[in-house]
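So, can you check these tokens?
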Amino acid sequence: MGTGERNQEAHVPEGTTKASGAGSGAGTAAPGAGSAAPRTLAEALRARSDASLAALLRARPDLLTPVPNDLTQLATRAGTRASVVRALERLDLFALQTAQALAVAPDPAPYEVLRTLLTGDDGNADVASALPGAVAALREQALVWGPDERLRLVRTARELLAPAPGHPSPTGLGPTVAEATAGMSPGRVQEILRAAGLPATHDPVSAVAALTALFTDRVRMSALLDTAPPEALGVLDRLVWGPPYGEVSADPAPPVRWLRDHGLLLPTSARTLVLPREVALHLRAGRAHRAPEPLAPAVAPAREYRAPVVDSAAAGQALTALTLVEDLLTEWNEGGPPVLRAGGLSVRDLKRTAAALDTTEQTAAFWLELAYAAGLLASDGEADERYAPTPAYDEWLDLPPAERWSRLAAAWLAATRTPGLVGGQDARARTLSALGPDLDRSPAPEVRRRVLTLLAHLPEGTAPDPDTLLARLRWEHPARTGPEDLRPRLAGWTLAEAELLGVTGRGALSGHGRALLGAVHTAGGAPGEAATSAASAKSTTSLLALTAAAALAPHLPEPVDHVLLQADLTAVAPGPLRRPLAAALNVLADIESKGGATVYRFTPASVRRALDAGQSASDLHAFLAAHSRTPVPQPLSYLIDDVARRHGHLRVGAASAYVRCDDDTLLDEIVADRRSAGLRLRRLAPTVLAAQADPAALLDGLRAMGYAPAAESAEGDVVITRADTRRTPARSAPVPVPDGPPLPDETLLGAAVRAVRAGDEAATVVRKETPRRAAAEPGGLPRTSSAETLATVQAAVLTGSALWIGYVNADGAASQRVIAPVRVEGGFVTAYDHTADEVRTYPLHRITGVAELADDPA
């Protein structure tokens, strides 16, 4: 916050002194800002500048939906429990500690009292220097208002943060002496005064005041504690940092009895005693917190590498990520597993997928969720609902590798889907399944971006110490409302997923990872800020694809167009193959191993698969000769010729099913084979066998017996069988679940501030009273007759003056507006509406009444 902002804030009622430097406004001050201290939060907001109001709405966008009618409504909304809880959750640790200290301070509290609560009697230079910024942050979010001499925490925040009976206090402090003695008999209070060496008083109020004065006097309090038994001091030590409550028996021990008799422990029930706040603060040397943390903990480096080493490792993992996603969707190319009735993938299918990808179930869930978030995988929506690739997958395959990776990385960064939860249980003890409906967690994108941002702040090639990284994140977001804070787990998953995806290499952020993060910040603002619109999100994704892909491309190996054939019926791909070559080779051979080089193995079944797809033996020989840098081995040529010679010698068609062959001795051999008993074959003619199995089962059975039959059509032609590709209807990628309202852009903020200012002027401006019109109720709409309304509006057109009107729209919603009439005709008034900051036309019959504005609104 600039110097100009602090100086401006010092001149408005909720401003701060130069000592605190906790300004919150900028730009032109609000009209009518005076020098008197504000009495309410609405008055404090009214004294803010437009820039300061815009900063409030930017920090708390939930206040903007819908746009408040005036500043009073804005202040009311800013004090609601849900909004305050959300604002507290966005505070860093020291700002939260400052709010907690204000919650136990007198209301209102001078700045010096707040500083003492945080620094203690001895002072703390780091705390003192960081405190103005923390107060400024609380002021900007309208959690604190008032000048330095009268700092006020909003009531809802005080209720949430102040000590309450039966609830743990964030500071560990108990109630004040006045609160603890509220139900105590006057005689008991006088007994405590006598035991503490104080004179008796005439009423309980003065007695409590005298006791409070004793406990807040450092010298007299020290003298009193000097007379306490050593065991009593030990009891106080156990309660001083909280919890301040302790249970006692009906006949407490002498040290506890001494503390109770002298008021250092006060009863809250027959069996419970509490340490008063004033006593605890004396024992703590005035500090509200045991250890204030004004400075964010630094992220310590764990290992350092040269930047090229990190980029190379990350690029290799990025290439592996592309291969795994492609293998996954190729595995489901003909239709994947069924969708569970409750949604998601069954545990058994997840295990099968993990086995197919040769990885763990948790990692397989990550790849599944990544493909789903990128829009490459979805359910087909049919009666027998199954998972399958989407049409977008085919488009994705046609992109260059670097751009394919950037699409995956952008989808991962923005997704609220959280694969780390797979296998856990929800609130109803139901297992969370991969691709299921309950895996969205709104903070996930913010945590991912913040983790990468912290990595980007380290020197290039530096891997962080995970413990210090988590400590930094806990300092930035210490508040939590649920039974479990998911952010540390999200941060751990982010580190692991970034390594799997190739955003990081050896734990350090890669060059293309920095480009990915830089594009997000350029297009979407600060980390954790939601996209303002679908168009903004689309442009962000496009920008990511360009910048990250350009940074990654130089580190990826160029696809090769050849393989190395070996005599053991294998082929070695020395790098990633070009897509047409890889697709053809996947049909002709089986993948045996993957890594830096992929090994393919040729088998009779794989060669038959290529022949079934319509290839001939000569086609296969030509293909291998064209794409092998080594001569085609003789065993491979023999294998192709042998399978081709037998391929299609037997023909299987549908009768229900039959086998025909020109060689009747071969049919005799089949019938005599015991393995054919299950097919229940019988001879119809010397060259034809009939079966009671369907054609598919007959084909599989004969192939299992070592033959190479071919299917034929009803016309007798060989049926060419290719793997059917199954695609879902057009599907869009899942929309991330937003973490609260979207961040407003500057145009919306400016319009909202003008609308709130105009509405506030309409609600608070001084209006001229006329004998013909009864004054409207405070906050109500003006009421005038139709004739008076028309006459007043026509007069305003001639004089160019502004009017205050009540208006009811077509939906029956009433509002107050300040307008400057321009023209009246045909039952309509055209006017400049100060509330909407635009020219509008209003039907006269919907105007409930009008009033002239006073010449001097102040």
